[in-house]
Amino acid sequence: MSKEELKARIQAAAPENKISCAAAMRLAEELVISRKDMGKLLNELKIKIKQCQLGCF
Question: What is the distance between the alpha carbons of residues 9 and 51, in angstroms, rounded to a whole number?
Fold first, then answer.
């Protein structure tokens, strides 16, 4: 899957430019990318993480 396809899938999962931590982790597993790469893509897309399981966001 290309980077643009990954971004499109992520944007579809975060329609208000927000995604929960748990949803981001599940999506990373579905897309077969690391959590670190998911974080980088979320930053590039300016998508905020909400309901962080660690209480960081």
Answer: 20
| Cα–Cα dist 14/8, whole Å | 10
DSSP tag of 47 = P
Supply φ then ψ for residue 12, to 5 degrees.
Answer: -65, -30
Cα 36 to Cα 25: distance, rounded to the nearest angstrom: 10
CA 38, CA 41: separation in Å to the nearest integer? 5
The pLDDT tens digits along the chain (57 residues) read 899 999 999 999 998 999 999 999 999 999 999 999 999 999 999 999 987 766 555
